[in-house]
Backbone:
């Protein structure tokens, strides 16, 4: 059958990296199983079982082992912490036999419990794990899938949030994602520059965020030890959650490396909203002059609604400040209005907080320190 006559998942064809696709390929799956058998045979030989070097060499000959806004940064650091925690918590199932009791290995070693435990430890270390689960059934607990998927699902939700914010800011023309010279923003409307990367970001993030529902349902339906209904869904969900996370990191890298910000548009929007933002400053200044806060609030409320109606119903500029200047009630603070409308008074310690957060030795640099080698591989390529 021709390649174009069967359905192919767009997730594996378009979005993740080659490394992640290789990790979940049939070749890697099969070679990993073969490697597990090699480790088991080596460990059994080391513990005195009659397994020849030739047999192990033959096993090796048939095994092939193949070798991603600062509030948002804070949220991504939380995702990183979740993933690191889930990864560090992972343990090997170990050499437990078909039902988890190690009965078959106990028989092989003539009821020598210490030999069985040593075999378990040897294979665990050969597989690259520090420890194995002491208690196991015929499979590892599906609770592990729940734990890992929740960490990745949290990252998926963060990605949706990032993509949504970028799309809204693009709508306001305050920010744009990278846009290639020959890229078509919309096939229908030539003038548009749709945030295609962020749209993809939201779609893939939604898919990842919801996989944890499946893993939770699968774990809940294990029926004492396990049931075979988890096989089909896990074959899809487990590879897909890693492929999705990988694809999202590629998009995140690409978008954040080329974001375009338009300060003039941002300034224009701030200036339009600043009169409303400054109303609390006006009220407090009046209170400092001995005016009742309730009276100040009522006067501001009435004038604000009038100015808002002019903006929304007639499309005219915000004239709240002119209205305030004309109202005798505000005469005690008229000369202070320019100072009270200074935009820099609304940001508090935000600059100092950002500097502390991102400075050398700060939270960001400490969290990323161990990944310095992976962060120098260059700009992520993305097909749009």
Residues:
């Amino acid at each position: 059958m021709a390649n174009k006559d069967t359905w192919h998942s767009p997730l594996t064809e378009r979005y993740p990296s080659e490394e992640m696709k290789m990790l979940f390929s049939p070749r890697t799956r099969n070679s990993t199983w073969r490697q597990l058998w090699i480790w088991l045979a080596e460990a059994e030989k080391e513990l005195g079982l009659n397994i020849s070097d030739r047999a192990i060499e033959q096993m090796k000959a048939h095994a092939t082992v193949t070798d991603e806004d600062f509030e948002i940064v804070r949220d991504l650091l939380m995702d990183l912490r979740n993933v690191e925690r889930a990864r560090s918590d992972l343990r090997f199932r170990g050499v437990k036999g078909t039902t988890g009791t190690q009965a078959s290995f106990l028989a092989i070693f003539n009821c020598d419990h210490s030999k069985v435990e040593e075999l378990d430890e040897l294979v665990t270390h050969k597989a690259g794990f520090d420890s194995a689960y002491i208690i196991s059934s015929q499979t590892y607990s599906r609770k592990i899938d729940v734990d890992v998927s929740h960490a990745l699902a949290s990252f998926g939700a963060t990605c949706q949030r990032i993509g949504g914010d970028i799309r809204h800011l693009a709508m306001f023309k305050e920010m744009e994602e990278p846009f290639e010279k020959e890229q078509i923003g919309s096939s229908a409307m030539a003038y548009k520059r749709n945030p295609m990367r962020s749209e993809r970001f939201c779609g893939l993030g939604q898919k990842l965020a919801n996989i944890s529902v499946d893993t939770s349902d699968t774990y809940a339906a294990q029926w004492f030890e396990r049931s075979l209904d988890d096989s089909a869904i896990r074959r899809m969900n487990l590879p897909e959650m890693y492929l999705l996370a990988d694809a999202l990191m590629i998009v995140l890298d690409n978008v954040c490396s080329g974001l375009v910000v338009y300060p003039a548009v941002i300034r224009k929007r701030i200036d339009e909203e600043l009169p409303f933002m400054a109303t609390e400053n006006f009220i407090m200044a009046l209170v400092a002059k001995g005016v009742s806060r309730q009276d100040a609030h009522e006067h501001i409320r009435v004038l604000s609604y009038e100015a808002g109606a002019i903006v929304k119903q007639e499309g005219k500029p915000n004239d709240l400040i002119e209205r305030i200047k004309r109202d005798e009630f505000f005469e005690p603070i008229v000369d202070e209005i320019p100072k009270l409308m200074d935009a820099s008074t609304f940001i508090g310690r935000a600059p100092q907080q950002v500097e502390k957060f991102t400075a050398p030795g700060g939270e960001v640099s400490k969290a990323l320190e161990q990944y310095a080698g992976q962060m120098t591989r260059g700009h992520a390529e993305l097909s749009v």
